Amino acid sequence: MRRRIPRTTLNRVPSRTRGPLRRVTAAAALLLTAGLLSPLTTPAASAAADEPVPVTDYCKGQCSDILPPGANGSATLAEILGNKLFGTQPQHADDQLGPYDALSSGYPSLTDDTLSNFFNDSSFGVPDDQVASVTRPREDVTITRDKKNGVPHIKGSTRYGTEFGAGFAAGQDRMWLIDLFRHIGRGELTSFAGGALANQGLEQEFWPQAPYTEEDLQKQVDFIKTQGGTRGQQAMDDAQAYIDGLNAYRVKSKNGRYFPGEYVLTGKVDAITNIGEIQPFKVTDMIALASVVGGLFGNGGGGEVGQALSLMQAQEKYGVQKGTEVWESFRGRDDPEAVSTIHDGTSFPYGRKPANARGQAMPDKGSVQTEQVVYDRTGSAATASAKSGDSIAKDPVKTTKKLKPLQGMYDDGVLPADLFAGNESGTRKGMSNALLVSGARTASGHPVAVFGPQTGYFAPQLLMMQELQGPGISARGVSFAGVGMYIQLGRGQDYSWSATSAGQDITDTYAVQLCEADGSTPTKQSTSYLYHGTCTPMEKLEKKNSWKPTVADSTAAGSYRMQVFRTKYGIVTHRATVGGKPVAYAALRSTYRHEADSIIGFQMLNDPSYVKDAASFEKAAQHISYAFNWFYADSRDIAYYNSGSNPVRAADVDGSMPVKAEPAYEWKDFDPADNTAAYTPPDQHPNSVNQDFYISWNNKQAKGFGAANFSLGAVHRADLLNGRVKKLAEQGGVTRASLTQAMEEAAVTDLRGEQVLPEILKVIRSKPVDDPAQAKAVQQLEAWLKGGAQRNQTSAGSKTYAHPDAVRIMDAWWPLLVEAEFKPGLGDDLYQALTGELTVDEAPSAGHGPTGSHAGSSFQYGWWGYVDKDLRSVLGQPVQGKLGAQYCGGGDLSACREALLKTLTTAAAKPATEVYPGDDTCKAGDQWCADTIVHRALGGITHRSMQWQNRPTYQQVVEFPAHR
Q1: Which pLDDT belongs to residue 846?
Q2: Which residues, listed in sequence order, are joined to residue 133 by a DSSP beta bridge?
Q3: Which DSSP helix (H) or strand (E) runs through 167?
């Protein structure tokens, strides 16, 4: 039976109150010319629409949250100028940055009473004395903003009015961001924001993963309406109301001249005449936006061609049998030493290696070619590309003296080129963490949770805070901007929920045999393929983009055409030969053509009549097709459910390798018309209720649940949480403060230092260290380890670490250590192949993560588990799931020790200026600054940097004392 919609169903008006610029100087005030001023405040007393039936807040002041930098993610041209020239901030643009940053220094003395110094009260509603403004975009809805943070609290007396208000508030807080991301979703970033190389690279990386025509997008809307039953129709009605509200604000702000200033700087609207247009938003934009969100955080699997190549490299070195054994030991599909969210031993078999795999389509050696995406380059696009490393031609436009300070603000792109990198290898930037403790282990007897999504640091933030209260909706939390008709992560009346990226394998690669319609001999460049024995033409999808210089982006005029071929088995990613016959490798993702089906699950999570307990929460999560780990807490229970449209593969098909595109190896009940299939039933998804505690940091879900990539091994950043929370749970008496302390201590700890350095030091200390320089370095590392292996300021504002030399040595040493340990044994080619599958390191100062360098999120991918297993093996210690060989020193302890000491000597001698070379934010040698978090500017407002923390961007701390 085919099933796509899981499981039972599928799944004008006063403007935004903004207030004056803070800290504005007299000189700045002169810039605030008529027509560019922010809208005036609407007094709270001036609007009193009929309100919905009051709801009871069962958290009773014990729910908190935070989302830096601030709720307000919109700025007029005047405000952007004030920020650039004088450092002024629009109201509520950065008022959550300070408390968020301060937790890194304040957590050791944290109590439940002092949580409010670092988190906001996330109670429902706004006390009368805290109301800053009330806006009524329609008679049936009000948007109330609080004085402290300016969060919109939307209350509607009708369903349409509630969703209209949500869209209107989204326009107030995130209109430019929404516009930006709908163009990313459509593969039109350069045409919209400029031809900067990073913009080119990003759209060339993303669009081939989710290429759609306008007709495709509309079909997805229609599918939800027609296949989703009553809830599906309601969801699309809600989406239309949301879009109507967003468009109402678009029109009003344009006419009132308080629209985001980025529209002027990118040439969309003239600052003087107001001539120009902000294109209307459509419901299909939400499908495009959903594809971006899903691509960043909700996908899993893929990369089978790369895995096949690295396996073949291992087999070439060791022979087929031994090579496969070695490769599988690094692949670690079900590593028995990997930390798991479900730790009671319950098994959930999925994605495991079959004993005798069928239908594999391994490429012939040297035949693989990556599919070309970009064609017909003109202008600046013909002189440089995102991957060439060359600088691109600039042609700055003439502009006024007033706008000169803003010229070129997007010359480096609005987003990093590698935002979606890793999807090819399956090592996506999946993020977020969760810590939950059962009421049986807490001081109050009620569960405690500290959890949230780690979505990177942007300005404005990708997520938007809001409260929604209306018929069938009662929730507060965050939603991704542009798809915020429901709260996606947050709290209801007596429960809270959150998620982490799961990344399980929902993407497979099929090798389609190429053919020619006229019967002639096919080549690797042929554009027809055999489908069930019939030569079938591929569908060519194209996107033509062009740009010209603007004030924001000085990139000279240029254009190109992007092209992909779509088959019934997905999008063509590579071409090769298999057994001498030409094939195209196509990636098939279970959520392709279903980017927004998960809307039904989110609708249920917001519906107080649906979610009443852990069981109904799990049923709601079952309607979410993207790969996420969902967590739930109320006053009685904690629960976990892994969502995703996990395809039922044909018997003995290995999802980690390319397979033949033949009926025998297709997903069960596969129908390419709408890309539907049979999916594993809910009870086969990792799920649990009331385990003593849960932790998640994008780690292994449960025993038997196969890893989709190489990263889930013996050492994982989730170990930083697991050890601390396990200790708390065993002691009992857990509080919100103590669980937050566990999270934050892990957030400022170096994974390599805490989890791997002890084994490294055991090898080195197996004999006396006689060399003075080596002895000094070892002592520094030991002192750092004893102090907790932290990367944290000695005190708030000190901007220096307690053990700076040890941190510098570790940062310099790790890549040298890994290479010296593994490369001699693996050989150059296999070492290169395996490091291509899994990067060696992700230290805070490295250029990785969703915002590039200064990204916060660290230690997700790296070779720490391999190093740990190998060194324990060399030391003669017990190892479960050993690597296929001993590598350090060829298995000889003395030789291993010498390799470690030699690289340590080299690392210790590297000066800070070499280890931390400096960038636009930091001077060379500034270690603390190199680690700091910087909010990547997506608009014209920038913010100060903050102390490195490896923690969720949006975070909740909750403890419900009561229940309905």
Answers
A1: 80
A2: 145
A3: helix 159-185
